[in-house]
């Protein structure tokens, strides 16, 4: 293998001839980008070049820095996934809970849109030298129509091909047979390096251990309280409308928008800036300051901070029934211990097999038969 520094120089020279991206002219010539793409292709220059050029055209076509999640604006809480802080290493931490989402029927299109919006903004909160992020997936309320193999493959495809080597860790909590079935279907398509980053934890002791390892006491305490509040039935108005701050006079009430440090360092400055600029009613397209794109929180959090009144949309009876059934299954497994999946890394062979987790997945929710295995680690 050629010297790595020489390969970095060579790839940088090869892509330098490309027309710069309008919103990010230095994207594909930055050393951080060059190294990520070479590393994701095991330092194979030709493969890294093809992959990076594909990403350049993808970003030229989609302009992700200007992307907004119209799904959340049209139906508040459409997606619950949001950044809530940073871990001890300074990596952005994203939290999602299916019970908080205002829909139970997600598509590949809306999922890719929201995740892209989220991670592009998370990148703006990353200090120099930080290149990965963390997801905490609370599977409470998860249904097959809200998270299925087809949807998971679509998101994984974008992350693998256009955001390689950015994924740090995925921590899955309150996992259910639905999750196990989806993971069993998608796992065969993702690289082993990506699968090994997924950790499946259930017991209180293991959750405390994992949170203590990755998060500050402040963020760990916030996550534990948020998770507990999202298990309550019915879910409180405060948790359904997670984009609103605690009501005035509520003292030290839990803030579902994120941990205290995240609120003070990102949300409060955003609100002050919106108060200064009267043209702040625009969404992502209007959020450019001094030629640079500024950090944007979850779309509904941003709308609320802009001064808009944002209210949750009531669930249909069908949505309520499906969610209640999904949670009953999880609670039943926790009580009887039957088929319990051990704490640990899901990427380990046999971690979910043989636990009665196979699902009868409708054809329209399955991974397309033409789908190819993903080869670049996320």
TrEMBL record:
SMART domains: SEC14 (SM00516). Residues 318-378 are annotated as: Disordered. SUPFAM superfamilies: CRAL/TRIO domain (SSF52087), CRAL/TRIO N-terminal domain (SSF46938). InterPro entries: CRAL-TRIO_dom, CRAL-TRIO_dom_sf, CRAL/TRIO_N_dom, CRAL/TRIO_N_dom_sf, PI_Transfer_CRAL-TRIO. Gene3D superfamilies: CRAL-TRIO lipid binding domain. PROSITE patterns: CRAL_TRIO (PS50191). Residues 318-338 have a biased composition (Basic and acidic residues). Residues 84-235 form the CRAL-TRIO domain. CDD domains: SEC14. This is CRAL-TRIO domain-containing protein.
């Amino acid at each position: 293998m050629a010297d790595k520094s020489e390969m970095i120089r060579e790839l940088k020279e090869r892509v330098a001839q490309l027309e710069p991206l309008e919103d990010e002219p230095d994207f594909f010539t930055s050393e951080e980008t060059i190294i990520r793409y070479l590393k994701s292709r095991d330092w194979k220059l030709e493969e890294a070049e093809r992959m990076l050029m594909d990403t350049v055209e993808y970003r030229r076509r989609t302009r992700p820095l200007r992307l907004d999640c119209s799904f959340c604006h049209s139906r508040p809480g459409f997606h619950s996934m949001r950044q809530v802080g940073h871990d001890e290493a300074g990596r952005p931490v994203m939290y999602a809970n299916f019970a908080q989402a205002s829909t139970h029927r997600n598509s590949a299109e809306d999922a890719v849109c929201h995740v892209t919006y989220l991670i592009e903004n998370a990148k703006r909160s990353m200090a120099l030298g930080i290149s990965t992020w963390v997801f905490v997936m609370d599977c409470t309320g998860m249904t097959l129509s809200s998270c299925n193999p087809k949807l998971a493959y679509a998101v994984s495809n974008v992350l693998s091909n256009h955001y390689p080597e950015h994924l740090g860790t995925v921590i899955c909590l309150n996992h259910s047979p639905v999750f196990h079935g989806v993971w069993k279907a998608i796992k065969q398509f993702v690289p082993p390096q990506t699968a090994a980053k997924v950790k499946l934890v259930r017991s209180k002791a293991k959750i405390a251990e994992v949170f203590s390892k990755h998060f500050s006491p402040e963020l760990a305490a916030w996550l534990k309280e948020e998770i507990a509040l999202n298990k309550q039935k019915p879910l409180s108005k405060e948790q359904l409308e997670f984009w609103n701050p605690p009501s005035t006079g509520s003292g030290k009430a839990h803030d579902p928008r994120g941990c205290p440090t995240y609120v003070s360092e990102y949300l409060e400055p955003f609100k002050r800036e919106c108060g200064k600029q009267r043209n702040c009613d625009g969404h992502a397209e209007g959020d450019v300051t001094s030629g640079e794109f500024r950090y944007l929180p979850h779309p509904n959090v941003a709308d609320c901070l802009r001064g808009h009144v944002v209210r949750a949309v009531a669930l249909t009876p069908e949505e309520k029934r499906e969610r209640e059934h999904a949670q009953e299954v999880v609670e039943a497994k926790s009580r009887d211990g039957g088929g319990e999946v051990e704490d640990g890394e899901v990427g380990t062979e046999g971690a979910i097999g043989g636990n009665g987790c196979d699902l009868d997945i409708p054809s329209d929710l399955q991974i397309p038969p033409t789908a190819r295995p993903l080869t670049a680690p996320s």
